Amino acid sequence: MKYLKVLYIQVLIGILLGVLVGWLMPAFAPAAKVVSETFINMIRMVIAPVIFFTIVAGIAGAGDLKKVGRVGGKALIYFEVVTTLALVIGLIVANIVKPGANINVSTTGNAQVREYAAKAQELNWGEFFSHIVPANIVDAFAKGDILQILFFSILFAIGLKRLGKAGTSVLVTFDKINKALFNVLKMIMQLSPIGAFAGMAYTIGKFGFASLALLGKLLLTFYITGFVFVFVILNLIARYYGFSLLKLLAYIKAEILIVLGASSSEAVLPSLMEKLVAAGCEKEVVGLVVPTGYSFNLDGTTIYLSMSIIFLAQVFNVPLSLGQQLTIIGILLLTSKGAAGVTGSGFIVLASTLTAIKVIPLEGLALLIGVDRFMSEGRAIINFIGNAVATVVIAKSEKEVDEAVYRRVVENRVETI
Hints:
This protein has helices spanning 7-24, 29-62, 65-97, 110-122, 128-131, 137-143, 146-161, 168-189, 192-207, 210-240, 245-251, 253-262, 269-278, 283-296, 299-315, 322-338, 345-357, 365-397, 403-409. By secondary structure, the chain is mainly alpha-helical.
């Protein structure tokens, strides 16, 4: 019975019960949705202040301003290389497996398609980088805009650092506030089994298993591709930088299960930051890389986007030349970044990309609506794992990991003299 006290066991039980309840009691779905969204909102309410206080304490407390720029630049280059690789892998697998072959083109849900298409037209990709700078920081905190909070936090930390000793009292206060926030987070995480249960009950109760029959091949192809990406590509990266991917995954297994149940990697952002710092990664590096990665390092989302476009081309028998597919990669590299933090961003980006390439009917999105919720869990898990790996990689490359602590906490190894 002692295992029932372990958080990840509780979350796993919650997920299994959620599947069962959603299957046997689909009418419970609306109530489950309320519970799931409430849990995620409880996490979101601490994300903005945690990011702010962690970054300020890291940079102003002991940070080197040149290192901040170096870490940020290195992280963005890493994100771009790995997400490009994810896009290419999605395109290659979709071309080989052909999940869209022999699918009936008759679609439903056109009202939802029009809604996503309208949102896609509202997005001005040229304004994305200007959006990073908040016009009103209070509004940025209220909306939980991670990129804007990150930008302001860095500037505030630099301003505080320039105060010298006069800023010490502020840093001490900030450190105490941050510790209080993480205590709040620990209390919320005790409710994660309930959140995972509700999230899964809503998914199964609302969408059922019927939609899986039609698009099962696409779903299976996506998950196998994600599995290969994590355990081949990310594993090779981890081995190159001298750490075990499997042991890192074991260390964050509770968070992975919460992501699976809640269908949102954002639900464990503060918890991931806390665990990586506890594992010996420098707080400043964690504070910079993790929030940035949640906007720029969406490996699961990029696999989904490239695969979905090729899938729809196959459904509508639209042959895409190599040049057209390379163009799609170029467009996705931009559009996949532009909807960061936007609800339903996967569909919005997909609609925007289809509009840009003008060769695949936009109505094809209706085929994906029913199965999208089942793919969102996979996207969120791959995104989460990708950001955990990226943070350790950047910290290792900067020699900002306490190796003794990392080996003891993550790899369960104790150094012997």
